[in-house]
Amino acid sequence: MIPDRIAALLDFLAVADRLKRVERRGCVLLADGTARRENAAEHSWNLALVAVLLHGEIAGPVDLARALTMAAVHDLVEIEAGDTYAYDPVGQATAAAREAAAADVVFGTLPPDLGQRLRALWEEFEARETPEARFAMACDRLQGFLQNILSDGLAWREHGVTHAATLGRMQPAMAVDPVFASLIGQLYEKAAAGRMLG
After folding, report:
1. What would the CATH number be for the domain defined by 3-193?
2. Extents of the domains making up the chain
3. For 77, which of 26, 41, 99, 158 could close a Cys bridge (C-beta 3.0–4.6 Å)?
């Protein structure tokens, strides 16, 4: 391997490690009963696990390796752009532009062939036009919703998120496959039972 390529790969991995510092709004309950914000790297790992578990459960064919690669790269732009809360309309209005600019920086640290490949996968995830992108998106939405349930709706309550507000975000995931509709439906029941959503 060429020394410049080695250096670029190591530089990118150092940049990617910063995803651990990007806080999300969702919370993680700790063993001692306290809570802290989930970081984007934890989210990406958990999303990948959801994909591994559900890949064999859904009806349609999905290239798991491609979906897992999207899971690994889908939030890397947050290293530069920060996390945009799903229920923040002001932040959502500028998210696409901020994330596209961040993608230039983050994927630009890689050798051009790898940078173009990972950027294309990030763009595919964002466009949600392929079965793999729709599957990865549904896993992403399911993970975020589950994280809110596991933390007893702490972030939802903190931000006044209503049941109606979540439907617009969760409907596309539920439409991907009946498995997602069933799982998310069960989570809605838990949210209702715990009065987690306004």
Report:
1. 1.10.3210.10
2. 3-193
3. 99
